[in-house]
Design goal:
alpha/beta; about 280 residues; Spore Coat Polysaccharide Biosynthesis Protein SpsA, Chain A; globular; 9 helices
């Protein structure tokens, strides 16, 4: 048994080395795929992911009626399936919850419909890895003409209007809020009470409003998109409902911020308690 002073010195060296090892440790990057009837495009999307830059891929099947889950098994993905179709927001809740359980440091949401370019995952996560952002949005409006890429004109106009309104409400200068290609740091997902959000499409906007309110850093990178029949696209009616839900969200947020209406959705989980000294 070593003398006491030698043992204490060894312990001190181990404690000093631990933070250095943590700083040098490569962050664990987990790609999550919120899937619903994605059998036609799942494999091509998965194959295009730069797997040397990703540690794990998680798929959550939101009650698909096609062979999405069978293909996920063939690809040996970490897969979860909902007991029924709960909605896009509910799917993301499961995605992020399970990614955090797997020890993810950075979580990338990538739709399995091949509309967004999977090869850009390294560009999406780079600002988080470099400490420049807590959240990164892949913007379609920074990569050329979205209409030339196939975005319908009514969706283009709606996106522009809602983005301008959200920028005015939140005091930001983002090119768009409605992208489905995103990356979140572990800190962001632990701070944001996303479990309180909607199970529907407005979840995407709620999490950004929460992030802004909590003063998390948001950065954009350009990403091209592809519009084709197999890619998931919301109908005109669904888009109108989505737009109205965003207006309701912004109204609720202004009530919380200006009139101090207490809404748990906009409070950090860690702000609700403190350690007793």
């Amino acid at each position: 048994m070593p003398p006491r002073n030698e043992a204490m010195e060894a312990l001190a060296q181990a404690e000093t080395a631990a933070p250095a090892e943590n700083a040098l440790r490569r962050p664990k990057i987990v790609v999550v795929m919120p899937a619903y009837n994605a059998a036609k495009t799942l494999k091509i999307t998965y194959d295009a992911i730069p797997h040397n830059s990703v540690d794990q891929v998680i798929l959550v099947d939101d009650g698909s009626t096609d062979k999405t889950l069978d293909i996920a098994r063939e690809l040996q993905l970490t897969a979860f399936v909902h007991t029924r179709n709960f909605g896009y927001g509910a799917n993301q809740k499961t995605c992020y919850t399970e990614a955090l359980k797997e020890g993810a440091d950075i979580v990338v949401m990538l739709h399995p419909d091949y509309q967004y370019d999977p090869t850009l995952v390294p560009e999406i996560v780079a600002p988080i890895k470099n400490g420049e952002a807590d959240i990164v949005l892949g913007s379609r409006f920074l990569s050329g003409s979205t209409m030339e890429q196939g975005m319908p004109w009514w969706k283009f106009l709606g996106n522009k209007f809602l983005t301008a309104l959200e920028n005015w409400t939140l005091g930001l200068h983002l090119s768009e809020y409605h992208t489905g290609y995103r990356a979140y740091s572990r800190r962001a997902l632990e701070e944001i009470p996303f479990s309180l959000n909607s199970d529907k499409f407005v979840f995407d906007q709620e999490i950004l409003v929460q992030a802004t309110h909590l003063k998390l850093k948001i950065k954009e990178v350009p990403v091209p998109t592809k519009y084709f029949p197999e890619a998931s696209n919301a109908s005109f009616v669904d888009s109108v409902i989505y737009g109205l839900s965003i207006l309701t969200l912004l109204t609720r947020y202004l009530a919380h911020r200006i009139f101090h209406v207490q809404l748990r959705q906009f409070e950090s989980i860690h702000s609700r308690y403190r350690r007793v000294q």
